[in-house]
Specification:
By secondary structure, the chain is an alpha+beta fold. The protein folds into 2 domains: 241 residues, Glutamine Phosphoribosylpyrophosphate, subunit 1, domain 1 (4-Layer Sandwich), CATH 3.60.20; 170 residues, Rossmann fold (3-Layer(aba) Sandwich). It has 18 helices and 23 strands.
């Protein structure tokens, strides 16, 4: 039996998390369930919903996909007009039910639920400090640190207690919280992770991506801005700016890989950005070829851009099996590249005898890319050229993306030529940082590109070589 995280098995960075909240809707739990379905790409380990009918709050969390965790009866048992939900991919804390979100706690201020997308780089030291004064933790997720800080706050108002807690943390957070009669959404001052505000008739919605608004036919109003907190109540939407302003450092990988192409993220169409990245890649690394194929699904749009700019036909030369679970039974007699073949298969009629350009969004360890190249060659490709729509990933992310440490990042220890030789490609081309910023219209100071540059906006705990950016 094989039971690894699918992203580790197939050589991708781990998805982050997705959050959703809705205020003043008669079917709040059902709307949240639908919203979480649209955010499933952001996390497949666990899902949860907290609801409130104005006087009582209820919670249901479980391991697995949204459709595994919820059914009609469970949704019926979550009454109320207000709700928040979460899909999780663990970046802090192991994959266990105790670490599933939303994090729901009873405090002296009353019950509250927190759903968090991001990662707090000082969570370990804060947890030790809180345990030293008597706090007892039930999980290993950093979101519980926020809950404890909130519970200990002596500020008189709800939003002041949340601000009081968040002033102690450093790192990335797009956070939604629910109490009995109010919904709160807040984004960290550097704006690492996306968070948007929408409206559905008399209801307000907050969510990680606009694709979740589309499904429930909600109107996109605007992004919740870096460092902004909104409180939604019977009064409507109130906006607060409780943190000192800073220049944003939004995660560039949201555009390259994590977000869905049909979403607007950081004010830009993810689809258009990926098309532009593909075009820029074709201009930087042209090659004589017969067909451009993507590594699905995240490489598809960049491959379309590459094919358009290079004037080379585009085709789906790799087909993805979308029904691969988190565990599967491995045959007793070994099958070469079993894991990758379970998820991807080459189309012989597309690649046989052809000079093939393969476009993907990133290379992490390199082992999966090597197996894909071998698969394409075995299907009869005459040449295989690989193009990557991001720069070499040479540093880990500490702000909500599950990346290996540097020793397992192939680009941290090998040159492009060495990587190409390991992959067995005829050529390999990565997007440059300059092309990433200019080719896709991404300015050099708006985005966090620490996984490529090592320029961390906030110092992670235990990393002494990067400069601290204070919140």
């Amino acid at each position: 039996m094989m039971s690894d995280k699918i992203s580790e098995e197939f050589g991708k960075m781990g998805e982050e998390c997705g959050v959703f909240g809705i205020y003043n809707h008669p079917e709040a739990a059902n709307m949240t369930y639908l919203g979480l379905h649209q955010l499933q790409h952001r996390g497949q380990e666990s899902a949860g919903i907290v609801t409130s009918d104005g006087t009582k709050m209820r919670v249901h969390i479980g391991m697995g996909l949204v459709s595994d965790v919820f059914d009609d009866k469970i949704i019926d048992d979550l009454p109320g007009q207000h709700a928040i939900g979460h899909v999780r991919y663990s970046t802090t804390g192991s994959s266990e039910i105790k670490n599933a979100q939303p994090c729901f706690v009873e405090t002296a201020h009353g019950p509250i639920g927190f759903a968090h997308n991001g990662n707090l780089v000082n969570a370990v030291s804060l947890k030790k400090e809180l345990e030293g004064v008597g706090s007892i933790f039930q999980s290993t997720m950093d979101t519980e640190v926020i809950a404890h800080l909130y519970a200990r706050s002596r500020k008189p108002k709800l939003h002041e207690r949340i601000v009081d807690a968040l002033c102690r943390v450093r790192g990335a957070y797009s956070l939604v919280a629910l109490v009995e009669t109010r919904l709160i959404a807040v984004r960290d001052p550097l704006g690492f992770r996306p968070l948007v505000l929408g409206r559905l008739k008399d209801s307000y919605v907050v969510t990680s991506e606009t694709c979740a608004l589309d499904l429930i036919e909600a109107e996109f109003i605007r992004e919740i801005e870096p460092g902004e907190m909104i409180v939604i109540s019977k009064k409507g939407v109130e906006s607060f700016r409780p943190f000192p302003p800073q220049e944003p450092r939004q995660c560039v990988f949201e555009h390259i890989y994590f977000s869905r192409p049909d979403s607007l993220v950081f004010g830009k169409s993810v689809y258009k950005v990926r098309m532009a990245l593909g075009r820029a890649l074709a201009e930087s690394y042209p090659v004589e070829a017969d067909v451009v194929i993507p590594v699905p699904d995240s490489g598809i749009v960049a491959a379309l851009g590459y094919a358009e700019a290079a004037k080379i036909p585009f085709a789906m030369g790799l087909i993805r099996n979308h029904y691969v679970g988190r565990t599967f039974i491995e045959p007793e007699q070994s099958i070469r590249h079993f894991g990758v073949k379970l998820k991807l298969n080459a189309v012989r009629g597309v690649v046989r005898g052809k000079r093939v350009v393969v476009v993907d969004d990133s290379i992490v360890r390199g082992t999966t890319s090597r197996k894909i190249i071998k698969m394409i060659r075995e299907a009869g490709a005459a040449e295989v050229h690989m193009r990557i729509s991001s720069p070499p990933t040479i540093h880990p992310c500490f702000f909500g993306i599950d990346t290996p440490n540097e020793t397992h990042l192939i680009a941290a220890t090998h040159t492009v030529e060495e990587i190409s030789k390991f992959l067995t490609t005829d050529s390999l081309g990565y997007m440059t940082l300059e092309a990433l910023r200019t080719g896709a219209g991404l300015g050099p100071y708006v985005y966090c590109d620490a996984c490529f540059s090592g320029n961390y906006p906030v110092k992670p705990e235990g990393v002494d070589s990067v400069q601290l950016g204070l919140f």
